[in-house]
């Protein structure tokens, strides 16, 4: 039994008893090794300090970062709530278990799935050159990084020993785009009244003034519309089927609405550019659940996707369900941004390819996007470590 496998088993046992230590906000200055990829992405590597390195490397693939944000490592995405009002950063958790940790900013913000895969692969090579060849590499990702993780595990089983993919659009990427687009056109139908156009542009045409004035001007208008027109709000929720927390409807209906519309506003133009065309299509969609579905379907705005964008999605963004290495996924049932049906669809894909594939899905009954506790992340990582140690007995 190799040292990495043996140490991974020890780490699995340590997860259950790991003490929660208050964390100080992490920055690039906390990296033991910090540098830049050849494509301009920044990377960070941290090594265990309180225990010997077990030879394993954990890479974190981060989620979506807006195109209006600086190109840098998003440390806030690696802060795990400890249940007592504090946080534990992922690099601290990983290092405490004896693993080395590494992450990358990717070379671009916005839609960065393709670049994310390139950069996590390059990060493995960077680690080999600057530290030492790792005995095994585990890939962990959240949201957009969850898709990066799943695609990388499917495509590069010789590089990664296994992956933990959380809250990612892994079931149907085209369906994810349509989910955001459908919500925007239904919102516009119910909330845009004559003389009171809440959001300028359309689901596929986002003017610069909408992005520039989002927080200061448009968010208050959206919030006011939800409370001013309760019947229309209820119909919008019924038609789109988006989740909210019934025990706290006022806050979570607003959170859901603003969250989905934020992605429509800030991801659409960037997505069209990177996909080589407009990907949203609702020409044949039949919407239902309103007080007058006939009128809704007659008046809702319709759009046709560009074939070039759909071809790009099919080639580079859709998962296959083909797994040669262990993969653990996690999803909350009430995720308003990346719906829980993605995990169900991916499980169906995997079962259709090989029902004995090394795959374990985890469903958490909770509202929120990537709303996991520290204990749940520990449990998911523990599952991955266990599966990898078992698979290492039979896989090369």
Task: Characterise the protein shown here.
By secondary structure, this protein is α/β, with parallel strands linked by helices. The chain has 2 domains: 3-171 and 320-391, Rossmann fold (3-Layer(aba) Sandwich); 173-312, no CATH class. Helix content is 45%, strand content 14%. α5 (173-191) runs antiparallel to α8.
Termini separation: 13 Å
Biggest pleated-sheet summary:
8 strands, mixed
Low-confidence stretches: none
**Beta-strand share of residues:** 5-15%
The CATH class assignment of the largest domain is Alpha Beta
CATH architecture of the largest domain: 3-Layer(aba) Sandwich
Shape designation? globular
How many whole angstroms does the radius of gyration measure? 22 Å
Which characteristics define this entry?
8-stranded mixed β-sheet; 13 helices; 2 domains; single chain; globular; 396 residues; Rossmann fold; 10 strands; alpha/beta; two-stranded antiparallel ribbon
